[in-house]
Amino acid sequence: MIIATNFSQLKSHFSSSDLKGAAAGEIAFSTLDSMAVPSCARAFPSFQCRSDPDFSGGVPRLDLPNAGVRFSGKVNSLSRGASVHGMSSLILRFPPNFVRQLSVKARRNCSNIGVAQVVAASWSNNHASPDFTPAAKAVDTAAIAPFDITTGDEEGAVVEDSARADRNVQIEDLTDVKYSSFLSSDGSIAIHAGERLGRGIVTDAITTPVVNTSAYFFKKTSDLIDFKEKRRASFEYGRYGNPTSIVAEEKISALEGADATLLMASGMCASTVLLLALVPAGGHIVTTTDCYRKTRIFIETILPKMGITATVIDPADIGALESVLYQKKVTLFFTESPTNPFLRCVDIELVSKLCHEKGALVCIDGTFATPLNQKALALGADLVVHSATKYLGGHNDVLGGCISGPDKLVSAVRTLHHILGGAINPNAAYLIIRGMKTLHLRVQQQNSTAQRIAEILEAHPKVRCVYYPGLPSHPEYHLAKRQMTGFGGVVSFEVDGDLLTTAKFVDALKIPYIAPSFGGCESIVDQPAIMSYWDLKESERAKYGIMDNLVRFSFGVEDYEDLKADILQALESM
């Protein structure tokens, strides 16, 4: 019989006397049928098996469902049909760091673990039959498939069957199971990805625990050497990774359709480390006129000190992009889509095609879009960046940033990240996980409210211009319809007035907070000329299109009618 179960399930099948003396980390087995020895014993030499004296009294037959690991292949026919003429028990003793020794992929298959998860291969404890061997010997026989542990980096490893074809029992790798096989929408993925199919933290809790630690210990020096020589998977230092952070990363990867995600302390941390890691000295970047000001400052003032230059083009100017790709050796095209604050959209599919033909990478900052409204990687981009502070966190209570894409590129960024620091706090990672569970509900409400308010504002006599990709008047309206499923919760517009008149409108609003940021449950409003560009003269602000009467309104999840009434009364007060 093949068994894959957890401690709580096993306990329900045994009397308290059967389990007496089994400390945390031990599981007592006693059954009339053929039992199992973990195939993990080969991978983990410190895994111990020992027999105890027979228990008295009848023990019910164990017939438990698969609990997290799928088995394929044939079970030894002798063990399947064996009758037992005596009873014995087996205690499987797990070393304290048993779960840490499992690779990331292996642990992902072991969900809902209590004290320990048992991955069992078949053996028989029929002492009356000469065809059966004792438990200790069975561990060393060919019936138990050995596993080799190899690690690709400090955070993970891959468990492989070294002799799959010759074994009676095989473990089928579940890491390729896609969430789409049982979750049909991004909303469900945002809730369950990284958690429902198993996670590297041993717990039966529904919510992911916060692992507050700055470092991870090794029981003995040989374990540390195994880790350093890539024979053992473990964490080492808090700056290099954290179990809570990994859950958030896997959740974002599932939403973006990415191989890997790297979570950092802020959105700007993610953007700057990415640029430093992927653009060599002497490299050239192409970016767009409309973008987050701090990103522009980094590109225009910091990167040139390293010999990195940039060309700035209009988001829709494909001709200018083709020209610079032809004239210069471009390393990276980096922009937002939609952009901040005018919500311009870049043709991600076309830009990716043109850049890839010339060997340039494409990175899209999708913060304004969210992974629900736009799939930049599916459209052809190599990397996608988010300020997780905004929609992903969604509650105006956490800072974070992330990069998603193929393993090779994300690993290159991760290597520099480990040197520079900027690691996200596990408590912040937890808040992002918590926030993402309501992402689809919030974004749906914000999409709807922003669209309806944008239409009202465009028709209002005291509003000169509205910038929102969901309006037919937007320059990239048709493009946005093609590559987005929703247009986001931010609307920028210019009121009919000067700096002071606009400030009067902002002050008259009762619901939104006057603050930077966007994407949270609470509505936020700001006047970019004051909030982000106050250090520049009016003429200098105008070079970036920032007029004194520009307003950026981030809609929260308040009731649409309340927000509508508040905006209309504020406009009337002007």
TrEMBL record:
Catalytic activity: O-phospho-L-homoserine + L-cysteine = L,L-cystathionine + phosphate; O-succinyl-L-homoserine + L-cysteine = L,L-cystathionine + succinate + H(+)
Pfam families: Cys_Met_Meta_PP
GO CC, one annotated term: chloroplast
Pathway of action: Amino-acid biosynthesis; L-methionine biosynthesis via de novo pathway; L-cystathionine from O-succinyl-L-homoserine: step 1/1
Domain of life assignment: Eukaryota
GO MF terms, alphabetically ordered: cystathionine gamma-synthase activity; pyridoxal phosphate binding
E.C. number(s) listed in UniProt: 2.5.1.160
Record PANTHER family: CYSTATHIONINE GAMMA-SYNTHASE, CYSTATHIONINE GAMMA-SYNTHASE 1, CHLOROPLASTIC-RELATED
Identification of the protein by name: plant cystathionine gamma-synthase
